[in-house]
């Protein structure tokens, strides 16, 4: 069947794909050569096999998704992603060649460009002239094509909105309608739904949530995934910003996972620590009402929450805002404990609380430490990638907050807290009372601590890992002389003490210092270091 | 008797421009398979290997293997007299100590021939074993040239590090440091714009920018460049010459002392 036609068509495809760099899809092929689409697919398959080295192939995969409830889906995938996309499908899916092209275009609209132009031309032909698009027999095909197009758009997020609208508004919205609707799994379904523009979405919980905005839904549910779903849902009501809605769902999901995992960490750490953490454990992942936060405030780590808790109690409007802050505070609480852990491990003579003497945050010291801390905090806010280093930095922050909240130096407290980037102006008494034994200890030690302070330094070492060090700085902090290195934190593992000392020396001379070290070596030993080609290749 | 006729004469001009900065004198070896050159730079740090296969010439005749020693600057001087559209014919008789370059204008109304004296050059031909490289980076040649040029204004050496995500070129100098990361990018409008990384394992090597900058003189020959790296081998910077062959530059890496590597 293929033989004679293929002989004529192949050279033409080759010329189009390899010389004119056109995307040749089966649709284009079937219209251009008036062959059936199945035949066109087969031709492309054959062509792709012949020229597999010279061109890129896009496949269509269609089948039932693994997700619940079952959804029939058609996806496009490049050769590289083929296996990956296959995993999404249940059992076996059909894999056919969608198009061949010289390279995967950066602007994915290019994939549809040729056939769109072709379709336009065909429609613009005089009415008397029959063509494949006017032919009744093939109109149904066209409908299907366009429906598929819409599906593909869900996969390729890079397609411009303009294009999406063009297709969807065109006339074949109905073709994409038969999507199974899902009651609750909005996050999953949002992809499919959002492609169908303006399709009403009914969700028992989120239907109202979408209108009321984020706050109410958050107040109702502590589960993060719901918020995610809501994000997606609220976006669906907009024009079909497919890309946004899909990615919104994803990022939201990630966020949810992060929070979950962080709370997991909290609980495991809690087992190492005494009663304070035992309380904090329920508090951390708990919901965000004022009651919860006040419980949290009673614990050592969530003290910073207390201020926000007050706010939360006052107005529900701030719940959303509060929720964000709370998430951060959960993190920071956890971080602080990690930090203290380091102090215990690494500091021989100083004890846990020596991190911050009351003196530390007076006047210029606090001011000096401010910029660095803020930077670290800023970075840790979206913290996902490198939690450990950031954890430390936040730990310092919250520790600062805690120490400064000691009754003895109430003034410095508020100053340092604001400087740390956390707007905590008021302090709740519950914290001090709830955590008395620990605080007492702190008070005792902080009063005796010398006029030194620990400064947290984060840098990227030569191997690209983030190293966070806590360094003692004396009264003359400007000199940047690290007296002692408390902890070196690698992404992989913590190096032994010997390394720390070494690293402390390096902390003083980071990149510019290194450059300086290298330069003389380069100048003087240049030829000594340069390898000789004769040491690699032998004379014949 | 040797006679090679190259319709695309500008190609030979580009080849000469590509290598003459690195090598001053070299032997051109002609055999039935093609026209080749292998030469080291004077400091024996870099090596250039050129191959123009016989099929790429309109007419190729080489009765027996012939090695012609030439001063590349002189060859370049001669070839500069050829127009970009000229057809170049290289002729040499067996046992002769001269080579003749003949330039024909496209419409055949002007024919020039230049005879150049050959030289005796003691060249040591090196055996270059086929090797599997830990990482091969293909990228637009103009991009590579730009990176080398930019970095050489900051420092003298470049550290090329290849990971799955991309290739990083970094340098450090008196005025500061510079890092350029090129990510793998297969989604482009033209295949030659792609940056493709084939990597068995991550590799990081240090090279003198001076040589890399010389290599990039071959940029006009090809739109893409392939950089092959292995931790214990010289880097290979290869420019394919359309349907004819290639020009490959080998550069020995700088030996990193352990103290430098460890912080």
TrEMBL record, chain A:
GO terms for molecular function: DNA-directed DNA polymerase activity. GO terms for cellular component: delta DNA polymerase complex. Residues 241-268, 372-453, 481-531 are annotated as: Disordered. InterPro entries: POLD3, POLD3_sf. PANTHER family: DNA POLYMERASE DELTA SUBUNIT 3. It is found in: Nucleus. Residues 375-400 have a biased composition (Basic and acidic residues). This is DNA polymerase delta subunit 3. Keywords: DNA replication, Nucleus. It comes from Musa balbisiana (Banana).
UniProtKB/TrEMBL annotation, chain B:
The keyword Cell membrane does not apply. Belongs to the PCNA family. Its main location: nucleus. This protein is an auxiliary protein of DNA polymerase delta and is involved in the control of eukaryotic DNA replication by increasing the polymerase's processivity during elongation of the leading strand. Keywords: DNA replication, DNA-binding, Nucleus. It is found in: Nucleus. Residues 1-125 form the Proliferating cell nuclear antigen PCNA N-terminal domain. Coiled coil: none annotated. GO terms for biological process: leading strand elongation; mismatch repair; regulation of DNA replication; translesion synthesis. InterPro entries: DNA_clamp_sf (IPR046938), Pr_cel_nuc_antig (IPR000730), Pr_cel_nuc_antig_C (IPR022649), Pr_cel_nuc_antig_CS (IPR022659), Pr_cel_nuc_antig_N (IPR022648). This is DNA sliding clamp PCNA. The lineage of its organism: Eukaryota, Viridiplantae, Streptophyta, Embryophyta, Tracheophyta. One of its GO terms (molecular function) is DNA binding. GO terms for cellular component: PCNA complex. It comes from the Eukaryota. Residues 127-254 form the Proliferating cell nuclear antigen PCNA C-terminal domain. Pfam families: PCNA_C, PCNA_N.
